[in-house]
Design a protein that fits this description.
Blueprint lengths: L11 E2 L14 H15 L12 E4 L16 H5 L10 E16 L4 H11 L7 E18 L3 H13 L5 H8 L2 E5 L13 H10 L9 E9 L10
Antiparallel strand pairs: 1-3, 2-3, 3-4, 4-5, 4-6
Helix pairs in contact: 4-5
Length: 232
């Protein structure tokens, strides 16, 4: 990322027609200010997130977790996973995503075309610019176990639903290693009997002007106009 300043004001759009984003000078500070002003003026994007539903899937190997990030990540930093010492354990991933609202640049505007020309003057072909952002709440839980997928999946689904485990299911849970990330600077107090409870409570908590989630998805273009894609 670079600190790039421009006097050009860009037009903002949203699929949530409740908000009327004004043209703005692009910066994180200005964008955050506009969002808070719109929430104050027109209300919250939604009144609640509804029930959080996790997508449960077996991963082929520890490195395939990077698919959930869209790029190669330091798993020890993001999920406290020692990728070198996983061994032959089975790995399950549970992904939660609760979209709340979005914000897009008007890609057809002359102002954006002028903005692109300013970026090109930096003579750096590796740069891309973000033209769309989705906000929401997101969580990723990784479970490592000596038990196979057929035995792990029912346990995971019960934990998400807050149901009581059988004695055999407790053994599967207690011998598993669980790592998580919620992609937001928000404190969670995990329950030793059900670490999913705090995560689900966070995802389902009421939306407020001070806690409307974080960036969960971005859309960008390379300077030649093609769509930016992370690769790994």
């Amino acid at each position: 990322m670079i600190d790039f300043k421009s006097n050009i004001k860009l037009d903002l759009l949203a699929s949530n027609t409740k908000y009327e984003f004004p043209a703005y000078n692009p910066s994180l500070e200005n964008m955050s200010k506009i969002i808070k002003e719109q929430i104050k003026k027109y209300g919250l994007p939604v009144t609640g997130t509804g029930a959080a539903v996790g997508s449960v899937a077996k991963t082929s190997n520890i490195q395939s977790i990077n698919n959930y990030f869209g790029e190669t990540m330091d798993l020890s930093k993001w999920l406290n996973i020692d990728a070198e010492n996983v061994g032959n354990r089975n790995i399950m991933a549970v992904s939660f995503e609760v979209p709340l609202f979005d914000l897009f640049l008007d890609v057809s505007s002359q102002e954006l075309q002028d903005y692109q020309e300013e970026i090109k003057k930096l003579k750096n072909e590796d740069l891309f610019y973000i033209w769309g952002i989705n906000w929401g709440r997101k969580a990723l839980v990784i479970i490592q176990s000596d038990f196979d997928e057929s035995k792990m999946t029912p346990v995971i689904n019960k934990l998400i639903a807050g149901e009581t485990l059988t004695e055999n299911e407790k053994i599967i849970f207690e011998t598993s290693t669980i790592s998580y990330n919620i992609f937001q600077d928000y404190p969670l107090k995990l329950d030793s009997e059900n670490p999913f409870k705090a995560i689900v409570d966070y995802l389902n908590a009421p939306i407020t002007a001070n806690n409307y989630g974080s960036v969960i998805q971005i859309f960008g273009n390379n300077l030649d106009g093609t769509t930016f894609e992370n690769s790994f």
